[in-house]
């Protein structure tokens, strides 16, 4: 809304400029709603008033990262000196809506209502548009429109600028066709959206709690497996197995299980255990866009070997032979919080080179099954040793020497096969359950967008057709621009 721009115009002229012609209206809405240009009912980028504050006084500051795209709210308000933010930043007031105009924040949904500001005003990133609703617009109704996927898709289609720096033009917001219901209907819609979203969020929280328990349940199963509890029935059926002469180990493993260190199960060949090359042997300047792939901590931790792929030349890879890996090698992170994440380098992938904070292990297949070794390293018994041997302040690390001396319980091959089978079945079942939870969570997000779509079409069964047309709201708003 621009009072200066509209000075001298009649109400009829302003009304004609504000309304969206019938042929340009995106879809049909209830009869007492009107289609209007957003900029004629909402102030976009309100001007900053004169502020009588000392430069050393504290004021609120909101960075782009402080706006949660998932929650649609400000998660952290900084306090900065007024003198350091009064120029060069975006000004807003309590109750204004912050809308990210830059990619990818806009697409992600970095939109929030400014609340709990010091002295009822604040400053923030220049990449925010500020939208201030009038008395004729319910703030939350407008907020939910800006949070809708449909709105963001249309905003994305008009973005301009260099790659990675594309922005939504202000003209898009000013001319956006806005469906304006009567004020009471706006409030009913906003309240219903809020109520339905609260129920969805409650359900999602239960899903998230179930997903969070996945790792705890996985650890509990691994613990039972390496105490011999998973194979108790198997033991009864195979009671004729020759027993080892040793005594029961720490009262936590069957008689036939031996306590051995990692070094003893490694393949008896050079470089069967190794860490990645030191920094001087492999530098960023050695990276290429193709060639022999490199494996980083992030790949092992995410079980994703396509993630941010880097390569070295074939010639460089030959100089890094001790650090080379091939499918079925076990990979362990030697750095992390804590270190000790492990994975098997998948079959079908090419030979690769591990980087500095990774450990590789080739096992002696006559002593241990690859998958059993992986599960043993992932078990609580082994991970406890990792935590005890880790060193460092900013980043915890384990040395290769420490790793070699860590212990696992080793049963006969026949029982290893049974343990692996039972664990694999358990984890596959758990993964299916986890996938189902993830799919349900995604459907919840889609349901929210479906609710928003219905809301802005007047399909939430909240409209009262006897209420005065929203055209009167628009006229009331435009009259103020004439004063």
From TrEMBL:
Residues 30-211, 351-434 form the Type I restriction modification DNA specificity domain. GO terms for molecular function: endonuclease activity. The keyword Thylakoid does not apply. Residues 186-213, 420-450 form a coiled coil. Keywords: Coiled coil, DNA-binding, Endonuclease, Hydrolase, Nuclease, Restriction system. It comes from the Bacteria. InterPro entries: Restrct_endonuc_typeI_TRD (IPR000055), Restrct_endonuc_typeI_TRD_sf (IPR044946), Type-I_RE_S_subunit (IPR051212). Belongs to the type-I restriction system S methylase family. The methyltransferase is composed of M and S polypeptides. This is Restriction endonuclease subunit S. It comes from Saccharibacillus alkalitolerans.
């Amino acid at each position: 809304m621009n009072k200066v721009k509209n000075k001298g115009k009649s109400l009829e002229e302003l009304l004609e400029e504000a309304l969206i012609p019938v042929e340009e209206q995106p879809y049909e809405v209830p009869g007492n709603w009107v289609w209007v240009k957003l900029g004629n009912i909402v102030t976009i980028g309100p001007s900053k008033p004169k502020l009588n504050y000392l430069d050393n006084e504290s004021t609120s500051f909101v960075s782009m990262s402080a706006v949660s795209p998932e929650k649609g709210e400000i998660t952290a308000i900084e306090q900065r000196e007024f003198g350091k933010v009064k120029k060069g930043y975006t000004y807003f007031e309590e109750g204004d809506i912050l809308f990210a105009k830059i990619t990818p924040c806009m697409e992600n949904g970095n939109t929030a209502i400014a609340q709990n500001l010091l002295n009822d005003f604040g400053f923030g990133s220049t990449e925010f548009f500020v939208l201030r609703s009038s008395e004729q617009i319910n703030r939350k109704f407008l907020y939910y429109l800006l949070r809708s996927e449909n709105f963001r898709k249309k905003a994305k289609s008009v973005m301009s600028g260099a790659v990675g720096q594309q922005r939504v033009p202000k003209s898009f917001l000013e001319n956006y066709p806005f469906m304006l219901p009567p004020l009471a209907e706006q409030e009913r819609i906003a309240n219903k959206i809020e109520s339905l979203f609260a129920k969805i969020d409650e359900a999602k929280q239960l899903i998230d709690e179930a997903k969070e328990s996945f790792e705890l349940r996985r650890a509990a199963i691994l613990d039972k497996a390496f105490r011999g509890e998973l194979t108790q029935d198997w033991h009864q059926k195979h009671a004729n197995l020759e027993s080892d002469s040793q005594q029961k180990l720490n009262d936590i493993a069957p008689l036939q299980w031996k306590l051995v260190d990692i070094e003893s199960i490694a393949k008896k060949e050079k470089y069967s255990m190794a860490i990645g090359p030191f920094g001087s042997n492999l530098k960023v300047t050695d990276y290429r866009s193709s060639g022999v792939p490199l494996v980083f901590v992030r790949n092992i931790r995410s079980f994703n070997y396509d993630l941010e792929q880097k390569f070295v030349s074939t010639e460089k890879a030959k100089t890094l032979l001790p650090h080379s890996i091939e499918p079925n090698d076990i990979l362990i992170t030697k750095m992390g919080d804590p270190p000790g994440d492990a994975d098997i380098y998948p079959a079908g992938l090419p030979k690769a080179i591990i980087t500095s904070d990774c450990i590789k292990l080739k096992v002696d297949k006559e002593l241990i099954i690859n998958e059993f070794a992986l599960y043993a390293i992932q078990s609580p018994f082994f991970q406890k040793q990792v935590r005890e041997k880790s060193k460092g302040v900013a980043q915890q690390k384990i040395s290769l020497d420490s790793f070699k001396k860590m212990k696992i319980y080793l049963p006969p091959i026949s029982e290893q096969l049974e343990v692996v089978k039972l664990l694999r079945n358990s984890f596959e079942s758990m993964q299916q359950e986890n996938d189902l939870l993830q799919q349900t969570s995604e459907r919840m997000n889609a349901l929210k967008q479906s609710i928003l779509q219905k809301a802005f079409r007047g399909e939430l069964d909240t409209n009262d057709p006897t209420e005065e047309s929203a055209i009167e709201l628009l006229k009331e708003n435009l009259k103020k621009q004439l004063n």
